[in-house]
Amino acid sequence: DAKTTQPPSMDCAEGRAANLPCNHSTISGNEYVYWYRQIHSQGPQYIIHGLKNNETNEMASLIITEDRKSSTLILPHATLRDTAVYYCIVRVPIYNTDKLIFGTGTRLQVFP
Amino acid sequence: EPEVTQTPSHQVTQMGQEVILRCVPISNHLYFYWYRQILGQKVEFLVSFYNNEISEKSEIFDDQFSVERPDGSNFTLKIRSTKLEDSAMYFCASSRDRDYNEQFFGPGTRLTVL
Question: How far apart are CA A45 and CA A41, in angstroms?
């Protein structure tokens, strides 16, 4: 699986959009970009995933650059409950492996 | 909303003892996983399980570890002879299929080995 690079920490004011970047310059054509988050010591929580088109769901939007070398997770209106560690993971869902390889992620602190 | 559950939430054991961590995956899911997270470190994959057999395991998952689906609902992780370095949060996860669907994680079991 391709390696990802994320900033170690970010701050965001409550109510503002949180934009979390991820660099995955070695991503291959069949690898998807997944985002999970971990609030305190809880189990990781799936947020969103995509291949090359931008994706949106009730939690967030995922913007993937045209060359697919980077992506941005957008939380449109961050709340205090969005304070968490956010993980960007690239993986090929098939090809006999379905494990998630977590990096160190970005620690997002939402402040009042 | 369906969720993965794990018991116990906290397990304290003596070094060398056997422990069994229990998980109830989401009912229509077919793929099951165990991950662990040592305090302050990354979440690490241990093992994946499908159709009553291990489909993949990491180098952490040595002979001291085993998994089992003893009935239609439970999924267990057994550590035969615990070591101090086994102290960690253990997360169970499940997914409906392995291809594109997300893995749903349980709340974790904190294992403390004394």
Answer: 11
Mutate which of B9, B103, B104, B109 to test chain A, going by most A C-beta atoms within 10 A? B103
Q: What is the DSSP string of chain B?
A: ----EEE-SEEEE-TT--EEEEEE--TT--EEEEEEE-TTS-EEEEEEEETTEEEEE-TT--TTEEEE--SSS-EEEEESS--GGG-EEEEEEEES-SSSPPPEE---EEEEE-
Residue type, A80: L
**Predicted pLDDT of residue B99:** 65
Segment B38-42 shows an average pLDDT of 93
Q: Is A94 touching B (CB cutoff 8 A)?
A: yes
Instruction: Tell me, yes or no, if A57 comes closer than 8 A to chain B by beta carbon.
Output: no
Residues B103, A3: Cα–Cα separation, whole Å: 20
Indicate yes or no: CB of A99 within 8 angstroms of CB of B107: no
Q: Do A42 and B108 touch (CB under 8 A)?
A: yes
**DSSP assignment letter at A82:** G
Given a contact cutoff of 8 angstroms between Cβ atoms, the answer to whether B31 and B49 are in contact is: yes
pLDDT for the residue B23 = 97
Over residues B22-45, the mean pLDDT reads 94
